[in-house]
Amino acid sequence: MELLTPKQKEVIIRQGREKFSGQTTAKTMRGWITGHISKFSKKGNMEMEFIFREILNAYNHYHPEKRLDIPIERWKGKSSFQIIDKLDRIIVIKYQKPNKLEEPRRIETEIKKEEIKYLISLIKYLDKGKPIKTKTIALNFSAHYGLGHLTWKSFFADRKYHNQLTLMLRVLDRIGYTNYLGGKSKWLNNKISFQLALDNYLLLSS
C-alpha cells in the first residue's frame, strides 16, 4: 500500500480534503478492496493479494451485496445473472423467469475455479482462429472429467452439466476471454490470468 508523505498529508489537511492513506478512485469499499487485489495480483505479491482476499471475504460476510428487485414488467422470458467470487470457486446467481405470469426465480450454481481454468485451456487449445462450436467444447470437457457423454445429444440432454457449461461459457464471455454467441465461442487471445480478469470485471461492475 502506498503511504502519503508528511508533506502530502500537510497539503491535504491545509486544503481541507478528506483523504486516507491508500485512497483510490473506487466509489465503494468493495471496489477499493477489489482494486487492491487486482493491483497486488499484477505485481505478483501473493501474500498481500491473499490478505486482501480475506478482507474481501470478511467484508462480504458482514456487508452482503444488495440485490435489486427487478420489476415484473421488465422480464420478458429472459434471464440475468451475476458472479460472486470465492476463494476456490465462483457462485453464479441466475434470475430466471420462464414467462411473465411467473415470479422470477433465483438459481445459484457453484463452479470450481479449476474447472473454469481447464475450460480456458481447452478453448485455447481448440482455437484455430474461428469460432468453436459448443458441442465440440462440451464433448472434450466431458471426456476430460469422465462424465460419460459420447454424443452431443446425450450431453445436451444432461441438464446439470449442459446448464453448468453454458454458465461457464457466459462467464468467460463476461470477463473478456471469449465472445460467446449463437452456440459458438471465439477465443479473444486474453493473456492475463483468469483471476485477474475476474477481479477487473467485478471491479468495473461494483
The overall average pLDDT, rounded, is 80
User: Over all CA atoms, what is the radius of gyration?
Assistant: 21 Å
Strand content: 15-25%
Number of separate structural domains: 2
SS content category? alpha+beta
Distance between the termini: 21 Å
Shape: globular
Tally of DSSP β-strands: 6
**Overall helicity:** 40-55%
Q: Order of strands across the biggest sheet?
A: 1-2-3
Order of helices and strands: HHHEEEHEHHHEEH
Offer a quick outline of the entry.
50% of the residues lie in helices and 16% in strands. With 206 residues, the protein is of the alpha+beta class.
Could you characterize what this model shows?
This protein is of the alpha+beta class and 206 residues long. The protein has 2 domains: 6-62, no CATH class; 72-205, no CATH class. The protein contains 8 helices and 6 strands, in the order αααβββαβαααββα. The protein has helices spanning 6-15, 29-43, 46-62, 113-126, 134-145, 152-157, 159-174, 194-205, and strands at residues 79-85, 89-96, 105-112, 132-133, 178-181, 184-187. The strands form 2 sheets. A 3-stranded antiparallel beta sheet has the order 1-2-3. A 3-stranded antiparallel beta sheet has the order 4-6-5. Strand 1 and strand 2 form a beta hairpin. The longest helix has 17 residues, at 46-62.
